Amino acid sequence: MVRLMVRLGEATISCEEVVNIVRPCAPYIMTGIGSSTIACCNGLDQLRKSATTTADKQQACQCAKDAAAGFPMLNEQVSASLPTLCKSHIDFPISKNINCQDIH
């Protein structure tokens, strides 16, 4: 028997999931060359659908922020433009400089 427990207020999305979802965006947000890929845009849409609660959004934001910190060449301006380019509304940018506790 498998038992799944989810506590209210706790995120159900993992950092591994977030990193895998946004990984296809890395080349574009680091260089700004070309355009975002279909895989990147699909990933943002998947992230939006996966992070529905405040806890999930904050967790996903923190995971994306931590991942972004590992890319010194991250172009914050290009990264901020991704939701518009992909026509996918996510509640936070992929950024090193965001306060994820402000996400609701």
Could you walk me through the main structural features you see in this protein, from its secondary elements to its overall organization?
Helix content is 52%, strand content 0%. With 104 residues, it is an all-alpha fold. The longest helix is centred in the middle third of the chain and has 16 residues, at 54-69. Residues 1-8 have low confidence and may be disordered.
CATH class category label: Mainly Alpha
Report the sheet-strand fraction.
under 5%
Provide the domain count: 1
Poorly predicted sequence stretches spanning 5 or more consecutive residues: 1-8
> Fraction of residues in helices?
40-55%
Question: Which of globular, elongated, flat, extended, rod-shaped describes the shape?
Answer: globular
| Class of secondary structure makeup | mainly alpha
Question: How large is the count of helical segments?
Answer: 5
How many strand elements? 0
* Biggest sheet statistics: none
The SSE string, one letter per element, is HHHHH
Q: CATH-wise, what's the superfamily?
A: Plant lipid-transfer and hydrophobic proteins
Q: Which CATH architecture is right?
A: Orthogonal Bundle
Q: In angstroms, what is the radius of gyration?
A: 14 Å
Oligomer: single chain
CATH topology: Hydrophobic Seed Protein
Nearest-integer average pLDDT: 85
Terminal Cα span: 35 Å
